[in-house]
Amino acid sequence: MNRQQTQGHTGVTGTVLALSGDAPAGRPVARPIVEGPHLLSGVAATPAGEVWVAGNAGQRPLAARWDGTSWTLPPGPPLSAALVGASLQDIAAGPDGRVVAVGGALDRIAQVELPLLHEWDGASWTAWDDGLRGRVLTGVATAGGETWAVGHGFPWGGAAGPVVLRRADGGWLPEEVPQLPKGKLLAVAGTGPDDVWAVGADDRAGLILHRDGRSWRRVPHPATRFPLTGVAAVSPGEAWAVGRDRVLRWNGRKWSRVKAPVTGANTVAAAGPGEVWVAGGNGELARFDGRRWTAVPSPPPYGPDAVWLAATAARDGIWLAGSHRLTAGGAVGESPAITARSGDS
């Protein structure tokens, strides 16, 4: 999964696209999900073929489900009236059909950031209170029957640095991670409990952490000028990470830079070693078939006005979620503004 931290923007509408090897140009998925401006920053697929997206609409969390024909919006858990700017940043689906969405909001009375951690049990959403005030959650993923959520704290909350939570023992348990006061985690992915990757930033440069089943450690990688916002794990010997002008590949021993035909990568998804997609701003899409990269333009009506923020492997291919700018005439104009709660990313 991935995360480019985002906030809602007037005139922006959510965008969903399904891709496959036999239809690389993609097909837009029926919309609208909701009327009015909204932003999609997470996407997940269930083994049963459902697809979920997450984001925000009108400064309220948004989670919608695609059943193959249409979108539905199950009511979310009640939120305190004191919360403003509430947004879901990422979403993940487990093999048992459970769905987890994460994000953050500001408590305007206490003036502190609070994480959002919502679980769908197949019938309704439940909000978890993990007690982590002064933090937000920005990425979530399932791996080998376990679910992981990542994020970061804020200096003014007394909890600066990366945050990792693991679903276990009927709740969410904090994991011990390297102490990095300027660090933040934006995305997480894995193949099992002993192979989990989390990426983000240490100050403004990229950051990669790995869990080997016992502990988290920082892993060296080629220098990046920007945060890493997306990660995908294929096997213990193959993983991918992206961030703006960098695409990185793990070969089981080290991370290396890969030349891919994208200039502003936000997200990456892999259906296998021969089906890897990278996407980003200006409608950029690129596919790796195991041997070579191919640039693929976003189809109409999105084109270069799309900003792809999230991607996931599904039963029928790769699904992308993001946004594009609207005017009275449709999807034209500038790409939407993408901002981070804790600073530029």
Automatic annotation (TrEMBL):
It comes from the Bacteria. InterPro entries: Beta-propeller_rpt_TECPR, Haem_d1_sf. This is Uncharacterized protein.
